[in-house]
């Protein structure tokens, strides 16, 4: 049951109001003065109200910050326009592990000394020839439908001891393969075939050395790949189930990133061999551990970001960066949370909370500009005649969400609820979390507009020193422990700063501030035909318990440097792989045509670096808008 909300008296600040009337605003803080105007690229939003998402137009070219409640700034400095991610190499992310150590790829080779402690020395001394290794790696990466045996010819096939070493090494390094000695053209050869998947689990168990941790932990370095697709490709190359891999968090696609991965009972050598076979990915820093990684089990991420084609004088840039370092930024959910097409993901989430599955399905299948291929015909067909059979014609597997929905509608054309339920659970929750995020952003803007950056009576602060309690990845998780926040009153309000204040990510198991903030949530929800009780969904897997999120975050380890350059393709920041390859640090061209700002900072988990950058740039951070700024 939601506890009764007590109306609290505000000692200072503007009079209370229940209206959601928040113009785009900048907050210049000694945390008192608020000046309202618009950011340079959203002047049309002056005096714009924060409205329910139901009042927004569905048919838009792309989603803007103002569409998702992102309206305010910490400082009142002029914007310094620049391009975010002109090249994916301009965005470098290193995970910070649970102990606060920055994860870096520093070596690609397996540590042979540590391996000798757990493996037989004679076995380690025998190496398969390079051409044989390539053949076996190719065989192990093939799908079952492509399987064909490989044959290994040796000069001394009558040497039983040599054949035994081959069999033992294949068995050790390739648990998914079986080898045997057969006669071919009156000669003995080694035949290697792929095992049936049903045998894999027991084979791993029987062959794993005693006393070794069950998980190989390694650093995955990737370029221009998202974490899930990278893991899917690794699993395919190794012919293993992708579910044996674990990670603490997903990393940006358009970036160079380093993060830790664990994999169940995988020999490090198998991963090491992929360094020469897989594009845009490298593996290293292997060790064996007893426990796998879990989602959220990291402190955050270290970012190295290059903003290209920067305008503004150096003094203004320094002031903007100093403000970011000392005062922080509003901890909005970034534009990635709401999708990159004309159909915002939070609109789909809103429809699901309203149990309007036909609307949710129609939004998912709705035509959107910028797409190519069969998916365009599919969407046009659905919009034209709502025929799932025709819409499915030629639709490739890569459009998994649309294909899953249409296949279910093919069986029952009017059961939109079942069709939506068939898509992957994480995808369904993505839509719901987007709607929660839209509400949080909108209320955060109103909270800052109304009260500035000072704690006020009725605000909430967390009882433990943690950066943030994430919304659950799994709302059925029985181990969820929502921390009970402290409600500020006239006795304790002076003990806290805005850095301690949280707003609830709305759900059925959170406490709401004991001031007008709760009313703001209720007003936004009412405009969408919803209530706070709507988050306790009748379908249990879609219920949202809620969480708490800091309003303001101050980055750690903030540093910055200006560069002049002429070549728009020159790399201005070094990644882990660049350093391994001993690439030179980028140089400064005194008379360069363009100016770039390189920023380094560390952020807690679930914070969006783009929201920190907008404090410096004062421009819309959506991918669609940023693409219009690119210098080619």
Automatic annotation (TrEMBL):
GO terms for cellular component: nucleus. The keyword Nucleotide-binding does not apply. It comes from the Eukaryota. Residues 1-10 have a biased composition (Basic and acidic residues). Keywords: Isomerase, tRNA processing. InterPro entries: PsdUridine_synth_cat_dom_sf, PsdUridine_synth_TruD, PsdUridine_synth_TruD_insert, TruD_catalytic. Residues 328-554 form the TRUD domain. It catalyses: a uridine in tRNA = a pseudouridine in tRNA. Coiled coil: none annotated. The keyword Protease does not apply. Its EC number is 5.4.99.27. Residues 1-56 are annotated as: Disordered. One of its GO terms (biological process) is pseudouridine synthesis. NCBIfam families: tRNA_TruD_broad (TIGR00094). Belongs to the pseudouridine synthase TruD family. This is TruD. It comes from Mytilus coruscus.
């Amino acid at each position: 049951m939601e506890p009764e909300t007590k109306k609290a008296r505000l000692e200072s600040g503007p009079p209370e109001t229940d209206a959601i009337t928040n113009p785009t605003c900048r907050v210049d803080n000694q945390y008192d003065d608020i000046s309202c105007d618009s950011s340079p690229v959203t002047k049309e939003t002056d005096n714009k109200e924060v409205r329910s998402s139901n009042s927004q137009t569905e048919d838009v070219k792309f989603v803007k910050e103002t569409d998702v409640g992102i309206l305010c700034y910490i400082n009142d400095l002029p914007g310094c326009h620049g391009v975010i991610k002109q090249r994916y190499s301009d965005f470098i992310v290193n995970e910070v592990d649970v102990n606060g150590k920055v994860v870096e790829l520093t070596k690609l080779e397996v540590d042979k000394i540590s391996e000798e402690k757990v493996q037989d020395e004679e076995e380690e001394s025998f190496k398969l020839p390079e051409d044989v290794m390539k053949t076996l790696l190719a065989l192990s990466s093939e799908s079952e439908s492509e399987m064909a045996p490989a044959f290994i010819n040796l000069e001394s096939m009558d040497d039983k001891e040599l054949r035994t070493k081959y069999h033992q090494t294949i068995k050790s390094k390739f648990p998914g393969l079986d080898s045997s000695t057969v006669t071919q053209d009156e000669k003995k050869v080694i035949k290697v075939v792929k095992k049936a998947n049903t045998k894999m689990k027991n084979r791993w168990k029987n062959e794993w050395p005693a006393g070794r941790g069950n998980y190989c932990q390694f650093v995955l370095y990737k370029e221009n790949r998202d974490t899930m697709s990278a893991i899917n490709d690794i699993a395919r190359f190794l012919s293993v189930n992708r579910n044996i891999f674990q990670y603490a968090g997903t990393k940006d696609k358009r970036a160079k990133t380093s993060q830790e991965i664990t994999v169940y009972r995988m020999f490090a050598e198998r991963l090491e061999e992929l360094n020469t076979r897989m594009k845009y990915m490298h593996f290293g820093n292997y060790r064996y551990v007893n426990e796998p990684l879990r989602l959220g089990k990291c402190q955050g991420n270290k970012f190295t970001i290059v903003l290209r084609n920067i305008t503004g004088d150096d003094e203004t840039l320094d002031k903007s960066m100093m403000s970011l370092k000392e005062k922080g930024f509003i901890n909005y959910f970034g534009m990635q949370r709401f999708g990159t097409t004309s159909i915002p993901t939070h609109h789909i989430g809103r429809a699901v909370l309203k149990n309007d599955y036909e609307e949710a399905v129609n939004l998912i299948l709705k035509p959107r500009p910028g797409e190519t291929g069969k998916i365009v015909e599919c969407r046009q067909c659905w919009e034209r005649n709502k025929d799932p059979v025709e819409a499915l014609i030629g639709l490739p597997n890569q459009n998994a969400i649309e294909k899953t929905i249409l296949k279910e509608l093919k069986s029952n054309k009017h059961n939109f609820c079942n069709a939506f339920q068939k898509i992957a659970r994480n995808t369904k929750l993505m839509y719901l979390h987007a709607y929660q995020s839209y509400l949080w952003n909108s209320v955060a803007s109103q909270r800052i507009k109304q009260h500035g950056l000072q704690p006020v009576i009725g605000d909430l602060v967390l009882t433990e020193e943690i950066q943030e309690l994430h919304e659950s990845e799994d709302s059925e998780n029985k181990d969820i422990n929502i921390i009970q926040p402290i409600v500020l009153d006239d006795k304790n309000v002076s003990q806290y700063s805005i850095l301690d204040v949280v707003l609830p990510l709305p759900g059925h198991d959170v406490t709401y501030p004991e001031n007008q903030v709760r009313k703001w949530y209720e007003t936004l929800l009412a405009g969408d035909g919803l209530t706070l009780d709507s988050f306790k969904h009748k379908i249990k897997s879609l219920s949202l318990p809620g969480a708490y999120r800091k309003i303001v975050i101050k980055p750690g380890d903030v540093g910055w440097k200006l560069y002049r350059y002429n070549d728009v393709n020159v790399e201005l920041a070094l990644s882990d792989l660049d350093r391994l390859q001993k690439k030179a640090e980028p140089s400064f061209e005194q008379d360069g045509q363009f100016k770039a700002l390189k920023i380094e900072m560390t952020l807690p988990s679930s914070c969006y670096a783009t929201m920190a950058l907008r404090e410096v740039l004062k421009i819309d951070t959506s991918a669609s808008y940023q693409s219009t700024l690119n210098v080619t």
